[in-house]
Design a protein that fits this description.
Blueprint: E1 9-12, H1 16-29, E2 33-36, H2 40-59, H3 65-73, E3 75-78, E4 89-92, H4 98-111, E5 117-120, H5 127-132, E6 149-154, E7 163-168, H6 174-186, E8 190-194, H7 202-218, H8 224-235, H9 241-248, H10 250-264, H11 273-281
Parallel strand pairs: 1-2, 1-4, 2-3, 4-5, 5-6, 7-8
Antiparallel strand pairs: 6-7
Helix pairs in contact: 1-2, 7-9, 7-10, 10-11
Length: about 300
């Protein structure tokens, strides 16, 4: 089945991920983007960040001033979910709180056009579970909205990272998959498909690697510098696992490890004790000023 054309994108959540997705869609796919957030302060902060990124691109001659102005003019901020009623494709990018995501999808199923693709940027929550929130309580066989639910899991920072995971739930139709693959490609991304399994592909591989590095630190196998240096200089990764954890967010790492441990049940996914302690201490990485390193 041919992919449907996306003429207008909607993004729910104006944080770092949502803003990044909206900006890349406006710049690369060159379509109007409705950016929704319940907080006007979050929208203002996000747009200020967008202006900063565009200004940086102009100063480095990556884009012209006219191109930057055109990109910015395609962003339409709002605090009203109802403004997504004309979107062909909506990407939800709110925090990893299952109840928050399912409530948003139940609302999107009512607001958005009957053809609109309803995508989530979740890094760990079951797509099947999110899709189920769009099904009528009295008729789980009604897949009119659930068949249009999919995950487009962008990597952080969105303007830089090329990879996007495409994850289908049990209810997801092939036409939804085709449209999602075509759209993220139009955004200049390189998609990889994953089954709806805990952690999907990226975090199923990445998070146990980071977790094991934390175990090595807490059990004295090596210092944080030695752990990061051997991985950078020995395996040619741009950033060591502990520094990467700081950039991702220590709390995010713990949340994903908890999902892997609880849903798969294998002890190899048990979160490191130090990981839990750091979250308790509020040492969440770069965003809090302190993690494995100080910022």
């Amino acid at each position: 089945m041919a992919a449907a054309e996306v003429k207008r994108l909607g993004v729910v959540g104006a944080g770092q991920m949502g803003l990044g997705i909206a900006l890349v869609a406006a710049q690369k796919a060159q379509i109007p983007v409705t950016l929704v957030d319940s907080s006007q302060a979050s929208i203002d902060k996000g747009l200020k960040f967008a202006d900063k990124l565009l200004e940086k691109d102009v100063s480095k001659d990556k884009v012209t001033r006219d191109e930057a102005t055109a990109t910015r003019s395609r962003l339409f901020p709002t605090t009203k979910m109802e403004d997504l009623s004309t979107a062909d494709f909506v990407i939800e990018a709110v925090p990893e709180i299952p109840s928050l995501k399912t409530s948003i999808f139940a609302e999107l199923a009512k607001i958005c056009p009957s053809h609109a693709i309803l995508a989530t940027n979740t890094s760990s929550i079951s797509i099947t579970k999110i899709a189920a929130s769009t099904q009528p309580a009295n008729d789980p066989t009604d897949l009119s909205a659930a068949s249009r639910v999919i995950s487009t899991h962008f990597m952080n920072p969105v303007p830089v990272q090329k990879g996007v995971e495409i994850i289908s739930g049990l209810q997801t139709s092939q036409s939804t998959v085709d449209t999602a693959l075509a759209f993220v490609t139009k955004m200049g991304k390189i998609p990889s498909q994953s089954a709806d399994s805990p952690g999907f592909l990226a975090n199923r591989i990445l998070m146990p690697y980071i977790n094991e590095a934390i175990v090595c630190l807490e059990t004295g196998v090596g210092t944080k510098e030695d752990i990061d240096n051997i991985m950078k200089n020995g395996t040619n990764v741009p950033m060591g696992p502990l520094q990467l954890a700081d950039f991702i967010g220590i709390d995010t790492c713990l949340a994903i490890m908890n999902v892997l441990h609880e849903e798969i049940g294998d002890s190899k996914y048990r979160p490191a004790v130090l990981l839990k302690k750091m979250v308790d201490a509020g040492w969440l990485g770069k965003k809090s000023g302190k993690g494995f390193y100080e910022y």
